[in-house]
Amino acid sequence: MSIDNDSSWLEWVTKQFESIAGDDKEIDLEEFKTALKVKESFFAERFFALFDSDGSGTISLDELLKALNLLIHGDETDKLRFLFQVYDVDAPKSCICHKYYSRSAEKRWSRGVACKFLLTVGSGSIDPDELRTVLKSCLKESAISLPEEKLDDLTLALFESADKDKSGSITFEELREELERFPEVMENLTISAANWLKPPRTDPRSPPPRYFTPAYWHNNRSKLLCMGGYGCLNLLLFTWAALWHAPLGAWVMVAKGCGQCLNFNCTFLGALMLRRCLTWLRATWVAKVFPLDQNVVFHQLVGYVVVALSVVHTGAHVVNFVRLAQRQGRPALWEYLFTTRPGIGWIHGSAALTGIALQLLLCLIPLRYTCVNPQSLHSSQVFYWTHLSYISVWALLVLHGPNFWKWFVVPGCLFVVEKTVGIAVSRMAGLYIVEINLLPSKVTHLVIKRPPFFHYKPGDYIYLNIPAIAKYEWHPFTISSAPEQQDTIWLHIRSLGQWTNRLYEYFRRPEPLSQEPKPLTRNLQKQRFHQWAQRKVSAKLRENHRACNIKCYIDGPYGTPTRRIFASEHAVLVGAGIGITPFASILQSIMHRHRMRKQKDPGGSPSWSESHKDEEMKLRKVDFIWINRDQKSFEWFVSLLTQLEMEQADEEPEDRFLEMHMYMTSALSKNDMKAIGLQMALDLLAKKEQRDSITGLRTRTQPGRPDWSKVFRKMAEENKGKVQVFFCGSPALAKVVKTHCEQFNFRFFKEHF
């Protein structure tokens, strides 16, 4: 830190201290806990005891600054000494600031000697019980739940590794030697929870907006070209219509120009949601030229353009009517607007009346996107019923504009065909949910009998309707089973909104779930359930896993950007939480194809990547990144990931086709003093048992969030081909991942439905 930065930091800490301490200018233990945002009181008490150099029970500003100076400006030995004292639970309370006190007057020098003496007369070593106490607090701080036996294993793994001389205790030098085996920890040894001590960043040279960077234009060239073409087409239509009506005056030119653009945009708005047509086009060359995966984004954009054009179009006509009324005297303005007497319009002079009705309906478009919360039942109903107004809008447009039907005839016919086919397919054969499994994190696993001739690709989604939950509601969900699974299709549904919560609670009912409780049906259900249990690996019958017979309807399947995965060379699958479901289907399909290849060539031993080289699959490497907030979120998908790891058990790490990366955001990072010991112990035990203690997988679960720059740089250096990133998760995380993809010129695809 420079002198200027040091003074600004000092000023910032002083200000934060005063806001926490209050009038007494001292921080007690409870205020200290609140300021550090420490979950487990053990660490707050240990830190507080070490900061409180005079043993007064409170921390003054002087004590805080000296302690923080040591942690921030001190060398590795100073920081390690502090860490050692935290772990040395039975040591007397001591001062960590002796070297700073000894720089001052004689009185403070004497006090420094006393503090230094306390450091040497303590226990000076860490025994297994102390280490176990610290690791138990580390688990609570990182929101990790492990059985007592596993905690003992972690303690022994770390203790045996650090106790070099087998003396039964760990000295400071032994702890230092053990930490040197983890260089990433030594780089930034700090108390990361103290966010209130971090001054705001003041970078005079802020980076340019990402929309003006060459990487953004390179990675979004298809989207930007289409948007440019869309804008030019609207400008051309406006200019042509305006010039055609130039003799009628400027306001008529504006109205007619906007009207011609509305003819195109109102048609284009519906064409962008022709899901079956878009699914078919994804398999053609069109998908390589046009950004079909951005159809939802374009749909929203065109919706706002329609609203803006309609306002200008209506306003121009009103101004023109005012001028006509003033010039001619009759009819009056209200007759122009609210009657058919002026005879304006191609069907009985109804242009004004239909225009007012259209304007009112089109004003609902912003309401659909600005007032909708997907977790609210009322908001979802607002979104659903306002979207049904498109039928009225199209009907009024046919009556309002003499040329609209010419634009609408082809897309309108396709729309009618799509809806007819969808209704026919969804109602043709009655489907049933035959099994349910209530998984951790309120995830409902539905097993639906697969209808005949139902073909889909990995990552596709369907619309689901369950009359027992809501008779008229349809909701989109990604199919989590592989297409090669012939008898059933799987859905994994996270309880996030009103409908999904009702679904979860419905299946929690203790009574048998059957809408048609016939004896023969029940026998068949039991038989099917027992067959399923035999196929499962290490499956156990539980109360939240049972057979049922619930009527349902599906509409689909519909394609998503993940259809491009098998045509990629190096695919990176990024899923956050329940966003893993589209990749569940893809990973299962990969595993099935690999198994089939092995059966065809039992004598050979090609690597996985070589065995999958065919005309449909160009993949050379797959990186699977799964980010979860807590430990339980991993449980529902672990069985499949375990099978994937077993398929590659004989492969060398550098030759593995599939590489998995697990991240748990609630766990503190390795460079946090409250998690160093735990993460070291987890690493040591995982290496010893060849299994991660959190998930049970061979892949080690990493604490915190991914360092995207580091992760993507490593993937770029592997040179496995052109990297394409496929994401499914929250919009906030999608923006972060996309920004980093642009830095490395990776193509980015996000799930939209």
Task: Write a structural description.
One of its GO terms (cellular component) is NADPH oxidase complex. Residues 594-613 are annotated as: Disordered. The protein is of the alpha/beta class and 753 residues long. Among the domains are: 220-420; 429-507 and 543-559, Elongation Factor Tu (Ef-tu), domain 3 (Beta Barrel), CATH 2.40.30; 562-596 and 615-666 and 704-750, Nucleotide-binding domain of ferredoxin-NADP reductase (FNR) module (Rossmann fold), CATH 3.40.50. The protein has 31 helices and 12 strands. Strands 4-3-6-1-2-5 form a 6-stranded antiparallel beta sheet, with helices on both faces. A 6-stranded parallel beta sheet has the order 10-9-8-7-11-12, sandwiched between helices. Helix 28 links the parallel strand 8 (621-628) and strand 9. The chain is globular.
In short:
One of its GO terms (molecular function) is calcium ion binding. The chain is an alpha/beta fold.
